[in-house]
Amino acid sequence: PRAHPGHLHKARDGPCEFAPVVVVPPRSVHNVTGAQVGLSCEVRAVPTPVITWRKVMQSPEGTQVLEELPGDHVNIAVQVRGGPSDHEATAWILINPLRKEDEGVYQCHAANMVGEAESHSTVTVLDLSKYRSFRFPAPDDRM
Ligand SMILES: *[C@@H]1O[C@H](CO)[C@@H](O)[C@H](O)[C@H]1NC(C)=O
């Protein structure tokens, strides 16, 4: 076939490929121990990205360590679904019940063959058990 000057040829069919972009990052949340906390992360990418949740931690040596979730945490669940728009995917992480040790920085990481993106949010946990004596005084306290 002859070349057509001034005419653009599509390299291939389908939408252009592009690296993930976090369009709605997870929000930072705070709550008390025993509560339920959910984070969501909305990503645009073609082709469909692999989205993972990770907890950002420090090793004793001070270097950053990423723990892939849910790992063996029985109180953590993760889910990924296409949408809400075309070329988008949304990932959720649900922590229930929230424990003091769940406090920290969470990373939503998305990658496809073109590139990767990430976004962070912070979960802050108030340890309610430390304050229980203030809220629920023992019966003896009344007299
Ligand atoms: C804490 O979690 C509960 C559900 O367990 C929710 O109803 C409440 O709104 C949350 N509080 C905050 C500050 O997000």
From TrEMBL:
Protein location: Secreted
Domain Ig-like per the UniProt entry, residue ranges = 20-124
Which GO CC annotations does the UniProt entry carry? Answer: extracellular space
The entry's keywords: Disulfide bond, Glycoprotein, Immunoglobulin domain, Secreted, Signal
Lineage top rank: taxon: Eukaryota
The UniProt entry, under InterPro entries, shows: Ig-like_dom, Ig-like_dom_sf, Ig-like_fold, Ig_I-set, Ig_sub, Ig_sub2, IGFBP_rP_mac25
One Pfam family it belongs to: I-set
An example GO BP is:
regulation of cell growth
Q: Could you state a single Gene Ontology molecular function term?
A: insulin-like growth factor binding
**What name goes with this protein?**
Ig-like domain-containing protein
| Organism of this sequence | Colobus angolensis palliatus
Q: What is the lineage of its organism?
A: Eukaryota, Metazoa, Chordata, Craniata, Vertebrata
